[in-house]
Design goal:
The radius of gyration is 15 Å and the shape is globular. The two termini are 27 Å apart. The model has no long low-confidence stretch (mean pLDDT 87). 9% of the residues lie in helices and 45% in strands. A seven-stranded antiparallel beta sheet has the order 1-2-7-3-4-5-6. By secondary structure, the chain is mainly β. A hairpin with an 8-residue loop joins strand 5 (73-77) and strand 6 (86-89). It has helices at residues 3-7, 90-94; strands at residues 14-18, 33-38, 46-54, 57-68, 73-77, 86-89, 98-106. The chain has one domain: Umud Fragment, subunit A (Ribbon).
Amino acid sequence: MLYPQLLGYSINEIYTIKIDTQMMFPTIKINDLVNAVKVDEIRKDGLYVHINLFRGMEMLWINRLFHSPVNASYICKYDHPNYENVEIPYSVLEENILNLRVFSTILTVDKI
């Protein structure tokens, strides 16, 4: 039995992502790896990776999202103190190229 089948997801829905931003420092650092599953819509509060177009270039974002039903938006929080929390309308995240819900981090104990 394959590991992705144990989770109930297909291999095409699970991603390992190398983080290239300090947005979640000190929890997740640059070059850390996270495992995430593709989501069609964001239903639960949690840690997410998003890929979207910004000025014509693909950008990777990682943040904690919390539903704010009053404003039909998400409260977006970062662990890094230099990043301010922001409110993002539901419609903005629906336009992303890819939304992934993080389910684990990978602890690397030695370089290969």
